[in-house]
Amino acid sequence: MKEQAHSPFPIPSLWCPIPGQIHPQRASITEFQLEWSIRHGLAAGSNEIARLVSADIAGLAARFVPRATLTGAQTMAALLTLTFVIDDLNDDGRLRGLPDDFARYAPVLSDALGPGLPAEPADPLVRALHDIGRRLRRTVSPALAARLVRHFRVTLAAEVRESTNNTRHLAPDLDMYVQNRLATTWVLPLTDLAAAVDGVEPTLADLDRPGVRALTEMTSLILGWDNDICGYAKDRRDGGEDVNNLPDVLARTTGAGPVRALAQAASMRDEVLANWLRLRSEVDETSGPALSGYLANLASMIRGHLDWAATCPRHTVPQGGSVVRIPPSRHAYDASAPDPLRIPSIAWWSDLPGAVAG
């Protein structure tokens, strides 16, 4: 595939030896997600519906949990839809540049996942979240549902911090950026759901094992960095600089130019994936079927996000090409890039079996 002639940046190559999979009932998931979104008022009018369809959120859900029950995959599609809607409200909608308003709205959203609302809410977002909460209470253990709600609150708090940083031009250093990025991907509540959608559920003790917790954090950071890397050229082409985007953080902290910062980011991301693969092999040796299924879904999320980004119209460049290449073999490490396992907030990963510093 040729690089786009008018792009000032090379199309990044993000190595991923994990095979891609997609749910066999993808069409049913897509039909459900569109109907559910319209029914709850998340898309009204032809333009909003067309934008929703072009985002292919159901396709992302089908790649994230390819072995799920149909009900589980539909719930994943619904929760993913809400993450997109909330992000769009914050990035381009009525909450853009208003972190204080977002901070007041966040508890309303997280409370909607609980059982305590006395009547059908008027706010479409709240109503949709309340429906997801009902779905969770039917299909997920109370302990895992409570964990998901807690992680949903953590993610919203991180989104408020990111909005504050962008609005007030508060540029975080690399460690502060990583601490917040671990949550702003939405992967923490999404992986809680992914733990149950296949019809079996690992114990919370298994999910809290250090190796499993590290794999979950690595998954979150890989997805966040892949998103940062794929969106970097678009953001700069649109005239924006995101203080919470990995290549921009690296450009500020290492003095690299845009192309070198992009290469550094890809190298750091590949290093985290290499450690994920080694650690997953170690952890899987002592995992029961439910935990092995959870680890398989983490793998599907890593590869599925890349496959979705490479084909989704929302993420392709204006000339119609992909924003990313996905080679099966790894490129040489960029020696100028910081070693991710020496970033303080995630340095504890280096103490686990299979971890190798870059």
What is the gist of this entry?
The chain has 358 residues and is mainly α. It has 14 helices and no strands.
Descriptive labels:
disordered N terminus; 358 residues; 14 helices; mainly alpha; 61% helix
Topology readout:
Blueprint: H1 26-39, H2 46-55, H3 57-64, H4 70-91, H5 99-111, H6 124-139, H7 142-168, H8 174-184, H9 187-194, H10 204-207, H11 210-237, H12 246-254, H13 258-284, H14 289-311
Overview of the structural elements:
It is a single chain. With 358 residues, the chain is an all-alpha fold. 61% of the residues lie in helices and 0% in strands. It is built from 14 helices and no strands. It has helices at residues 26-39, 46-55, 57-64, 70-91, 99-111, 124-139, 142-168, 174-184, 187-194, 204-207, 210-237, 246-254, 258-284, 289-311. The longest helix is centred in the middle third of the chain and has 28 residues, at 210-237. It is globular, with a radius of gyration of 19 Å. The two termini are 29 Å apart.
- Write down the secondary-structure element order: HHHHHHHHHHHHHH
Kindly state the mean pLDDT as a whole number?
88
Largest sheet: none
Q: State which percent range the strand residues make up.
A: under 5%
Shape: globular
Helical content class: 55-70%
Radius of gyration: 19 Å
**End-to-end separation:** 29 Å
Q: Could you name the ranges where pLDDT drops below 50 across 5 or more consecutive residues?
A: 1-7
* Class computed from helices, strands and strand pairing: mainly alpha
Number of strands: 0
Per DSSP, the total helix count is 14
